[in-house]
């Protein structure tokens, strides 16, 4: 007797709860949930403390801006470290930094020594801890769950954060109203302890590395280059910025909305922030259903329209209840959109560069948040709160205009798995790992009838080679033998050449297959060279037998 097909609810539950079948993910999720509660309570305290000390909208919005700025300045560094070093150690250090800053903030508030400047600086340091933590945390999801569960794991993390967002701010508002901002800061400091404990005892398996880690500057450049030469990732980054700049007006101006438009205090702000978080949690919970029915691009287009309606609703609402509902809708759009961008980046990046692509995405998104929070605060100060919110709602629709040219697409499952060429052969003389540049040439004989198509394919292959680390890529056609084409590119050193050999993916093989159909033979004839500076000894030569150059030649 065959089993009856699962109901829609059962399929949704199985998909949503899949990550929790993995013990380490579940343990870290609960620990991060506690930390998220503390962070959101701290946000209420910091924003309301600033509203009391410096009540202008631009000063209040600045709290959100300085919290987001570290993601712009530090994410790329953190991503490079996450791809090359122990991610668990990086996460631990970042959490200790945030804990220290939180304790300092609580002590200053307790002693009544807190100022707008110290509040902003310590909020910035807490943001630095979060910025250093995020790329390593998100890149480590692949060590916590299988690749096909990554989307559900990303959404589960978003759900946990927004579960805290939906309840924490309301609790935070009550705490701030009853005991002041100092209590919120102390609770946040304590909330880091559980996550630090779990991370300290997590036995994260160390990846097998046949090559030494990339230097920090080289690693950052490689990550930026990979994104710059990946059209899918560029589309995601641009769309994320165009979305975050306008919608950040909602959380950035929320304290002022509670105070000026609704005439409330800290509890009112906590309720609005709770509504925003409740909507965000609904967005995370409904993600699986929406992703099953719509492509990422179609989903993001629809969410932009809903975001515009929510922001216009906040700006024009005359009642507290409708303002609350508009914040619920805005929170729904916020999480579902940003998580969709995050999933698209994760599934469009090979493992060797995932930390850096996620860091680049976070840099773009949080730069948009920082610019948006500061800008909409200034706009609200100049033309009024309702007008600023209305303009931001219209601005978010710009994303629909560019979506036609920059669609968000996700790579096929497994297509970004590594494909190391089986034909790689060690050279007869192996240079030192820092020796170089290494020059590679490949000769292709291309029938005249295939030449036009060959040019398009070889240039696409060149983009892939440059994305993976090749430099000075070029292709030449022989003037005396027009069917002979030569592709040339370099690697700065031998170790860079070896790293590039590990980076091709299964998806890249489609381009190579197309190329093989256009040339005579299965592949081009390859030669590898190493540039030798003037006076350098030949590779493999016995230095004791070398004679010094005659002064006539050595001085020209």
What features would you highlight for this structure?
556 residues; mainly alpha; Growth Hormone, Chain: A; Alpha-Beta Plaits; 2 domains; four-stranded antiparallel β-sheet
Quick synopsis:
The protein is mainly alpha-helical and 556 residues long.
Structural description of this entry:
The chain is mainly alpha-helical. The protein has two domains: 379 residues, MFS general substrate transporter like domains (Growth Hormone, Chain: A); 93 residues, 2-Layer Sandwich (Alpha-Beta Plaits). Helices cover 67% and strands 5% of the residues. The chain contains 22 helices and four strands. It has a four-stranded antiparallel sheet with strand order 2-3-1-4. Helix 3 packs antiparallel against helix 11, helix 5 runs antiparallel to helix 16 and helix 7 packs antiparallel against helix 8.
């Amino acid at each position: 007797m065959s089993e009856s097909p699962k109901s829609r609810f059962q399929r949704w539950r199985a998909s949503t709860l899949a990550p929790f079948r993995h013990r380490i993910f579940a343990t870290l999720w609960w620990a991060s949930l506690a930390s998220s509660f503390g962070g959101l309570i701290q946000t209420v305290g910091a924003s309301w403390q600033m509203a009391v000390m410096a009540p202008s909208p631009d000063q209040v919005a600045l709290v959100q801006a300085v919290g987001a700025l570290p993601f712009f300045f530090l994410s790329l560094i953190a991503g490079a470290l996450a791809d090359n070093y122990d991610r668990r150690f990086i996460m631990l250090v970042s959490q200790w930094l945030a804990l220290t800053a939180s304790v300092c903030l609580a002590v200053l508030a307790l002693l009544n020594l807190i100022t707008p400047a110290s509040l902003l600086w310590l909020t910035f340091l807490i943001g630095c801890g979060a910025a250093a933590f995020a790329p390593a945390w998100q890149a480590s999801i692949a060590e916590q769950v299988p690749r096909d569960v990554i989307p559900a794991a990303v959404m589960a993390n978003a759900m946990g954060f927004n579960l805290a967002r939906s309840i924490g701010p309301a609790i935070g508002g009550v705490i701030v109203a009853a005991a002041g901002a100092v209590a919120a800061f102390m609770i946040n400091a304590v909330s880091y302890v559980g996550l630090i404990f779990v991370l300290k005892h997590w036995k994260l398996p160390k990846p097998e590395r046949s090559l030494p880690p990339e230097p920090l500057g080289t690693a950052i450049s490689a990550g930026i280059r990979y994104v710059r030469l990946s059209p899918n990732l560029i589309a995601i980054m641009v769309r994320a910025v165009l979305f975050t700049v306008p919608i950040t007006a909602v959380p950035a101006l929320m304290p002022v909305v509670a105070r000026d438009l609704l005439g409330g205090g800290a509890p009112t702000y906590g309720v609005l922030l709770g509504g925003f978080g409740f909507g965000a949690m609904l967005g995370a919970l409904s993600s699986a259903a929406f992703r099953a029915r719509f492509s990422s691009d179609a989903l993001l287009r629809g969410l932009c329209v809903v975001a515009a309606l929510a922001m216009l609703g906040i700006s024009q609402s005359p009642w507290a209840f409708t303002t609350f509902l508009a914040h619920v809708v805005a929170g729904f759009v916020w999480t579902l959109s940003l998580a969709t961008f995050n999933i698209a980046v994760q599934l469009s990046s090979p493992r060797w560069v995932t930390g850096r692509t996620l860091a680049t995405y976070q840099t773009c998104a949080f730069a948009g948040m920082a610019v948006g929070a500061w800008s909409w605060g200034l706009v609200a100060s100049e033309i009024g709160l309702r007008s600023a919110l209305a303009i931001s709602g219209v601005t978010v629709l710009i994303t629909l205009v560019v979506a036609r040219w920059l669609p968000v697409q996700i790579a096929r499952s497994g297509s970004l798995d590594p494909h190391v060429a089986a034909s790689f052969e060690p050279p007869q003389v192996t240079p030192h790992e820092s020796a170089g540049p290494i020059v590679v040439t490949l000769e292709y004989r291309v029938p005249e009838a295939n030449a036009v198509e060959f040019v398009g394919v070889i240039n696409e292959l060149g983009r892939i080679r440059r994305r993976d680390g090749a430099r000075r890529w070029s292709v030449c056609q022989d003037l005396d033998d027009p069917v002979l084409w030569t592709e040339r590119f370099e690697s700065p050193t031998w170790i860079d050449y070896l790293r590039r050999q590990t980076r091709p993916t299964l998806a890249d093989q489609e381009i190579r297959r197309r190329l093989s159909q256009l040339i005579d033979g299965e592949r081009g004839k390859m030669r590898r060279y190493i540039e030798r500076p003037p006076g350098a000894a030949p590779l493999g030569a016995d230095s004791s037998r070398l004679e010094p150059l005659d002064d006539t030649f050595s001085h020209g």
